[in-house]
Amino acid sequence: QVQLVESGGGLVQAGGSLRLSCAAYGRTVRFYVMTWFRQAPGKEREFVAGISPNDDSTIYGNSVKGRFTIARDSAENTVYLQMNSLGPDDTAVYYCASPESSFAPLKITPDNYDYWGQGTQVTVSS
């Protein structure tokens, strides 16, 4: 059974940084696409970042490019999201997601992902 567990959210002032963690159980993160999405109240779930298993290539949502970094630690079987220069628009629940198949490509729409964590709240005050 696959379980993804996010942590690291919290309250931070604008301009600050946070690092989110996604610990995976029941799967080895280096063999699968791993992604981060976020959802703010009243908005659709938005792609934030993703990392591919084969070459560690990454893609980012336009609103976070240059500020967020996704990385994988195979020893810890964990995926991280380093978030810098945070602003109030980054306030959301952040989710880790991964597909069922190790052959699935990295895509930016949430319906491509089968496993989701419970989410971690990030709140940025102005």
In short:
With 126 residues, this protein is mainly β. 0% of the residues lie in helices and 47% in strands.
Question: What does this molecule look like?
Answer:
- Helices cover 0% and strands 47% of the residues.
- The protein has 126 residues and is mainly β.
- The strands form two sheets. Strands 2, 4, 5, 6, 9, 10 and 11 form a seven-stranded mixed β-sheet that branches. A four-stranded antiparallel β-sheet has the order 1-3-8-7, with no helix packed on it.
- It is built from no helices and eleven strands.
- Strand 7 and strand 8 form a beta hairpin.
- It is globular and about 40 Å long.
- The termini are far apart.
Described by strand count, sense and barrel closure, the largest sheet is: 7 strands, mixed
Mean pLDDT: 97
User: What is the 3D form?
Assistant: globular
Helicity level, as a percent range? under 10%
**Ranges with pLDDT <50 over ≥5 residues?**
none
Radius of gyration: 13 Å
How far apart are the first and last residues' alpha carbons, in Å?
A: 40 Å
Properties at a glance:
single chain, 126 residues, mainly beta, 7-stranded mixed sheet, 4-stranded antiparallel sheet, 11 strands, 0% helix, globular
Architecture blueprint of SSEs:
Blueprint: E1 3-7, E2 10-13, E3 18-25, E4 34-39, E5 46-51, E6 58-60, E7 68-73, E8 78-83, E9 92-98, E10 115-116, E11 120-125
Parallel strand pairs: 2-11
Antiparallel strand pairs: 1-3, 3-8, 4-5, 4-9, 5-6, 7-8, 9-10, 9-11
